[in-house]
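Quick look at the format.
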Amino acid sequence: MSVALYARGGGVGCGAKAAAAARRPGRGGGGGRRRAAAVLLLLLALAHLVFERLWPDIRDDASSASAAASSLSSTSWRRSMLMTSHYQNPGELWMPCVNRKLIRPELPPSNGYLMIEANGGLNQQRLSICDAVAVASLLNATLVIPAFHFNSVWRDHSKFGDIFDEDHFIETLKQHVRVVKELPVDVLTRFDHNISSIPNMRTKAYSSPNHYMQKVLPELLELGAVRIAPFSNRLAQSVPSNLQALRCFVNYQALRFAGPIRVLAEDMVERMVKRSTLTGGKFVSVHLRFEEDMVAFSCCTYDGGLKEKTEMENARERSWRGKFHRHGRVINPEANRRDGKCPLTPLEVGMMLRGMGFDNTTSLYVASGKIYNAEKYMAPLRQMFPLLATKDTLALPEELAEFEGHSSRLAALDYSVCLPSEVFVTTQGGNFPHFLMGHRRYLFGGNAKTIKPDKRKLVLSFDDPNIRWNRFKRHMQDILHHSDMRGTALRKPNDSIYTFPMPECMCQQDGMM
């Protein structure tokens, strides 16, 4: 889920739930809020204190592992998280089979043209594109290459062809859905060459196929063209199997990144593998959501200083214009942290991974936007993982120059490097990890190792001033084990096909499905 969607009610932030928590007995009024803020600052100070106290044990743990590894033969690796992460139980290997699940009747004459406007960041746009193809198929419409809405949070003017390969998209879909780059002149003439004159069929989120057939199709047949804007999450999660298969076909085969993105991404992956010689070319990727807008929207407090408070207020006002000052909205950072709603700091991510068994020889790729106060907050993570890389360290400045200022293109580079990683770590939810988890399941037999920690449990360990390293490690490994248990999962009725491509888009290898 993008920050923009999150702000419209997809998460707690500073919204109604936070306000309700703040109105609980003992938490209301200015005095209560001041006490809550003071408690939170104490807890955050404890997290740093815990790290400082545990650091000698963390460092010694790595030294012991290194010494043990050096005593083994050069062809025998120490027991490493990276060497045992991709696994499937016998009989549970799933393989992509979307091509044989797709129904391919000859395309009848088109009923007209469908235009949609995708909003949000890279993967929210991706979701809108996949759903638009499914709706176009349902309506037997010709899809016009989607337009991208400029968003005040993402601030990216990129068009479809800047991010995705347009020609490949059109060619790959030609047997399933007609796609054109723009409306024909004769159709535009009917609407006085003004796109806004084409009726906008405003559609509720998660609308059923029946809605499109009953409400949109008649207008399409009458007018020859309709548009739907905005078009984000406008198709139900559960639809007929042929539409689900088409969604997957679009996501995994028709949508590929534009040439400049692919070329640089391939080079970055190759460089990351070369940096990971100590673990056989395998590396861990982390989606770190600690950008200024995410920290601001979460309404969590970190160092609690005047500078941070001013910067967060400015960021909230710049991107959400008064949303957080509406009547009844109360900021309660302590409740957010306790409920696992606060973005993990780089320090907390590092402590979690070291506790789970990843030592200082682990190559770590950090996917993120511009980290808030990066010099301060990234230092402990680099201390714990000296083999840390980002797109800024893997690529030369001149290689990144054409992508700067385009958040979706930069996110596409991150996505491409995370995709083949041995282990993927998600820290804050959103469309990026949800799409990546589904894509990795699709590519890696239904089960690609993902660490999705329970942050409510993490906070209990981070905020315990008396915790010892052995107990901290046990807690982290319990959290890891819980993530392992959810590795292979079939889609449930309200789940997204983009996160859980089984069973609609994959088949068990033994042919049982």
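Next, a different chain entirely:
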Amino acid sequence: MVPKLIIITCKQPPTSIPSFNISSIKTKEKPQTTQTQTLKTTTTKTKTSPPPPPPPHHHTNKKTETSLPGLLFNTFDDIINNFIDPPIKPALDPRHVLSQNFAPVLTELPPTQCQIIQGTLPPSLNGAYIRNGPNPQFLPRGPYHLFDGDGMLHAIKISNGEATLCSRYVKTYKYKTENEAGYPLFPNVFSGFNSLIASAARGSITAARVFTGQYNPSNGIGLANTSLALFGNRLFALGESDLPYEINLTPNGDIQTIGRYDFNGKLSMSMTAHPKIDADTGEAFAFRYGPIPPFLTYFRFDSNGVKHNDVPVFSMTTPSFLHDFAITKKYAVFADIQLGMNPLDMISGGSPVGSDPSKIPRIGILPRYANDEKKMKWFNVPGFNIVHAINAWDEEDGKTVTLIAPNILSVEHTMERLDLVHAMIEKVKINVETGIVSRQPLSARNLDFAVINSDFMGKRNRFVYAAIGNPMPKISGVVKIDVLKGEEVGCRMFGEGCYGGEPFFVAREGGVEEDDGYLVSYMHDEKKGESRFLVMDAKSPEFDIVAEVKLPRRVPYGFHGLFVRESDIRKLSL
């Protein structure tokens, strides 16, 4: 339990696997698109239409013929990766980043039956839990960051107490073009530009590939490896460097990428991987950020998925790393934190995203139906750096906004030393009239990847479910926090050598109370080399296991997930 400490800032006027040791893998430039457990890669002839997925453990050969320009550019790539910008830092060394269960599975998995080893799967879970995460189709030849890697969706489809697992890449333009070529064509954002010389060298080769027709960046450069969202009767795989990619689930649990979606031409640039969906209205709210003005652009979608006009926010005066935000019934809430685009760090060999200790973090509050930024208000909140937001709501007095979010106490380590990051969940209240800000810590644990009952998005909620970093990015358990009491009221540790992912709350059908439902998550036993799907009772203090499913193969650690009910899956096919 944490004391209910209240910190008041000065009054201020508002302003307008062990068996997968990456060090033993010889890097080849050959992706696999079918299921197998071997890490050996081969080359094959590209076909215009891929064959249907082979049965498990079948090995498909595919030969690729590299053009003369491609061979030349690959040679230059090797020179850069080995001599100009080798992966010296642990945060960019694939032998470190892709160790243990962070190692990719280099093949897809068609829908495969799972074994239920404990309990039963409740009827409320009829549907699919899908989790996104980076899974590079090529073993890296040079620097590699945890945030890089092609998106792979791992979906467990549940029907009448039985489950099947399917793992498929999100077939982005980048993935498909590189898959056909047999090697990487476009550098990744977080690992490809870590010095001025490396940026210039890789930029030159990329420009040459574009000029010779190997790659067309207007068709997308993103990875769609971060999260998923369901709105407007469409399911999207998301990554903030590109447009959303529409996804479909077949009745047997297979995953299909329909394609890049621009909302009838109204979305021409990237979008956040964390849109917020109002369960009462069906509306979705989103934004994008970037390195050139406007550094922040806000927009929304109606319940049918029709996009409204952009609202550029020029009062954000520096390019901030704005990964997430929150909504209330009246406002959109943004955080201008100390992480941002930092070209000066790149010159000295640092990441393109770095911290600025001299910057004072701010919270920006904009009316959620605003057509411009005239009513945007910014409030200084020293020492408050958030990457993820959990929820926000309007207080009954009509002038106070409450925000719940994990505050990163060591923000300078966010990009390169996640193991040193400590995030503490706080409740922050902002009086939009007086500018007074109060803060209350809700837990002293290292917590992130937190969720709520999605029916309470933008409204006052009581319970938060968060992943325990031990250290990040490994997750050793999950806790339940009572926001009203300001204390933990539930906890489950996964056990020695077992690590999970972001929990996701699924409400029990017919449930009345906010916490009447289940927490679901993938979990991996590093000692046994086995992955499982856990269903936990969200109301019980120890998150009692309702069902445990042994998965037919390893599921690597990843990022964010989503549960889609069977009724919503049927709407996707329409």
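The longest strand covers residues 151-159.

See the schema section for token definitions.
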